Automatic annotation (TrEMBL):
It comes from Pyrrhoderma noxium. The chain crosses the membrane at residues 20-43, 162-188, 237-262, 283-307, 327-348, 355-375, 387-411. The lineage of its organism: Eukaryota, Fungi, Dikarya, Basidiomycota, Agaricomycotina. Keywords: Membrane, Transmembrane, Transmembrane helix. GO terms for cellular component: Golgi apparatus. It comes from the Eukaryota. This is Uncharacterized protein.
Length: 499
């Protein structure tokens, strides 16, 4: 019977779906881990969506006042605190130098009410959310200028919530990939994401209280004399408490699931062949590189997206004079990201020296590019004024640097047997080889107390080509065990040479 292309594709998709189902339901621990990851992604994204909704409503009020009052868009707000005195300035240049700082105009000082400018702007405040009626407030020019600072803070809060929602889907994707391919690096990367999410939620609630204090001084008890954001902080803090509880529970469950799954995958991987200690150490470094790569992907992409959004939609869009250069640079970095990760995976797994040098060179380029960015006043200003952006970029830099350092350690471990063991493990995994189905039956196979296998000439490629550059310094001696013997008898000849 002739099979159409559609039937072929449908059959392939059905096989793929069945394979996913089998991987997820392989054991109780994998099933529960998948359900936990899915439900937590759904629930936590919903919580972050509520926070985004509150930020959006508050920012809509502040931005509408700033827009209708014709507040200049080419100025950046600069708030300083000294001895309990709050000083808000508007600057047309990034105030990181003494000259630029002197050009800034003082808009509000908490110890000097005479800075408030009498001419005002009338606006109706919609306080229906708090249960009160519409009231009319006289917003002075100073008040509208102060609200430009609130607008910048609230816009950044919205960006943060969107980035955190994206992190939940990224963590869920890591979990699915870990279950699908029994991947320890993806498990570790997912665990790192859970830990960082918990740390940020703890810091975030403190920062919300700090922002409330700033707004009280600048707006409620300061330039405006009214609470222009009624109920905003109360609702936000309540949701953030729920967020902390969810993150803490998820972190504890992640410890249990990751520990159980790593033990299962680790035993499943090395029980197939029985790796010597030095290969185990090299394998752990290899896992460290892959884990850092998975973590770096999210932080690099998110940090770049936040920076580009600032250049287009933030106050820096009217101040920065090198936006085109920044866009080109970050586009190149994002385009090279996936090839860089693929190069690193193949270079370490197949012990390809030249490819490894390319990977290390790109890693050094990524690391050094961050250093050049700190020379930019616009970048440094964003980094100092926006803690979330600073955390994203700093985490990306740490992950990249750790990746490069561990890759150098992997390079020093080349030609010590890791590539051969990874290839053998992959071949056995494809054939569904499980050591538990073999018993140490010495009668069914020729009995040998021990045997030596020369890995120098064993091919790690499917076409049988020999890897001449793989100069193993010593032969790996394996003590006679029927499961190793059954595998090696099919992989190499009885005398230790390849078939």
């Amino acid at each position: 019977m002739k099979i159409t292309f559609f039937q072929y594709r449908y059959g392939a998709v059905w096989v793929w779906v069945k394979n996913i189902y089998f991987r997820i339901t392989f054991s109780k621990i994998t099933t529960f881990f998948f359900l936990f990851s899915f439900l937590y992604c759904l629930i936590h994204s919903l919580v972050q969506s509520f926070l985004y909704s509150y930020d959006h409503q508050a920012d809509r009020m502040a931005s509408s006042v700033v827009r209708e009052a014709d507040v200049p868009q080419n100025e950046v707000s600069w708030l300083t605190r000294s001895d309990g005195i709050y000083t808000l300035k508007l600057c047309k240049h990034v105030p990181l130098t003494d000259t630029n700082a002197r050009d800034c105009k003082v808009i509000f000082r908490s110890d000097n009410s005479s800075l408030n400018i009498p001419p005002g702007y009338r606006r109706e405040l919609d306080q229906s959310n708090s249960g009160s009626e519409l009231v009319t407030a006289n917003l002075t020019q100073t008040c509208t200028r102060v609200l430009s600072y609130a607008d910048q803070v609230l816009r950044n809060s919205r960006r943060e919530e969107l980035a955190l929602i994206g992190s939940e889907f990224w963590a869920f994707g890591l979990s699915v990939f870990a279950v699908m391919y029994c991947s320890v690096p993806h498990l570790l990367a997912d665990f790192c994401m859970r830990f960082l999410s918990l740390v940020w939620s703890l810091y975030s609630i403190w920062r919300t209280l700090d922002i409330k204090q700033r707004f009280d001084v600048l707006i409620t008890n300061g330039a405006c004399g009214h609470d222009l954001l009624p109920g905003y902080f109360e609702h936000r803090i309540a949701i953030q408490i729920i967020d902390i509880v969810l993150n803490f529970i998820a972190f504890l469950l992640s410890i249990f699931f990751v520990w159980k799954l790593i033990k299962t995958y680790h035993r499943k991987t090395f029980n197939r062949i029985g790796a010597p200690p030095h290969v185990m150490r090299a394998y752990k470094v290899f896992l460290g590189v892959l884990t850092c790569l998975q973590v770096a992907i999210y932080f690099l992409v998110t940090g770049n997206a936040l920076w580009i959004d600032q250049l287009f939609n933030g106050p820096l869009a009217h101040i920065s004079s090198h936006n085109t250069e920044y866009i080109i640079g970050f586009t190149i970095i994002n385009v090279l990201l996936l090839p860089w990760i693929a190069i690193g995976w193949f270079a370490i797994r197949l012990e390809m020296k030249r490819t490894m040098w390319t990977f290390l060179g790109l890693g050094a380029f990524y690391t050094c590019s961050w250093g050049f960015l700190y020379y930019s006043q616009v970048f440094r200003w964003t980094w100092i004024q926006w803690p979330f952006f600073a955390c994203m970029t700093l985490s990306a830099q740490i992950a990249e640097l750790a990746c490069v350092i561990l890759a150098v350690v992997c390079y020093k471990n080349f030609h010590k047997g890791l590539a051969q063991y990874l290839h053998a493990e992959s071949a056995l995994a494809k054939d569904d080889f499980e050591p538990e189905v073999f018993t140490n039956d010495t009668e069914s196979v020729p009995h040998r107390d021990s045997f030596e296998v020369n890995f120098k000439s064993i091919s790690i490629y499917s076409d049988g080509a020999s890897v001449s550059e793989s100069k193993v310094d010593h032969d790996i001696k394996l003590i006679g065990d029927s499961r190793c013997w059954v595998f090696l008898r099919s992989f190499v000849g009885m005398n230790g040479t390849p078939k």
